[in-house]
Amino acid sequence: MKRFFKRSKDALNAPTQAARVRVDERTKKLARRLEPGDVAVIDHADLDRVAAESLVAQEPAAVLNAAKSTTGRYPNLGPGILLEAGIPLIDDLGPDIMTLHEGDYVTIDGNSVFVGERLIAEGIRQTEETNEQAMQDAREGMSAQIEAFAANTMEYLARERDLLLNAVGIPDVKTNFKNKHMLVVVRGYHYKEDLGLLKSYIRDYRPVLVGVDGGADAILEAGFKPDMIIGDMDSVSDKALTCGAEIVVHAYRDGRAPGLERVERVGVEHVIFPATGTSEDAAMLLGDAKGASLIVTLGTHTTLVEFLDKGRSGMASTFFTRLVVGPKLVDAKGVSRIYRTRISSFQLFMLSAAGLLALFVALAVTPAGQAFLSIISVYFWDVIDVIRGWLGLAPGTPTT
Fold this sequence. Notes:
Strand order of the largest sheet: 7-6-5-1-2-3-4-8
Number of helices: 17
Number of domains: 3
Structural class: alpha/beta
């Protein structure tokens, strides 16, 4: 992530100069077009950590949110990340802010947004103090979210019982997972750092590399090629889609497949996998059903707050998927801590041979070494003569 200059409180509250806006309801799509100094206009309730980090990496002048960045549903991490980076955040601006056009120039004064002299919207300017209070209120309301999660979990199990327990609905794929390690890469929490730490593991064990949407681009950026790409294809590049990986389009149970039009337009062969839940969960279930011996996850959700970041609809699938594949599941951070580079028998043999060859060459080019080799040669042929005598053969005399 790029480093962002942290502004003082006075600078944060001062009126901004007119800056160009980028507008999108999908924060991760907006982040791909955002340039340093732009104003990001989003509609993202409960701004999550991944979305906030993607915004901070582009160094915007400010973030304007039509929704509440923290609704109180749970203590989400996004607003704090923006404030820590020194990026002004104005919340709850309402739908009028989304009427701005891409390329408009706005001025921010306090909690008000202007185009020229015209007031567009007013919201709530977040500070470290207001964010801390929101986090405290959200932590107190966590019990309600846990209860809702329990109810949603039972609904999910009823819908996906056959898939979870009997692998019914898993598509036929060309990629071979049988008795292999599988590395599932999601462009999520600290994915770049974790992928960098696993480069030796990838080279030694050659796991099946599965990119979940933009995770495929992360694999390419690390110098490897994904074996499979799975997801709704909304954040993966055309370069990744055409790199030769097998494409699995994640679809809803009602038959809708948001990514189908994209892959057909690019013109790549694909299969469809209808499943409730998230694409990262679908990837793990597919690998487990196809016989992967170990499933390593990178950038996926692991903590309770991270589960809640996905919304209640995604929590149940994440929870149950990890129960199903649990015996095989390892987080990338765990692998990086316990993994040691594996040295094969062939590598040891070649290393020993190289050492012996270097010793022989060193002996052959020095007078003392030549004398030593001459003595060794005499003893060698004496031993050969003894062996030939045991075998009833005439002694052999070396040519000097």
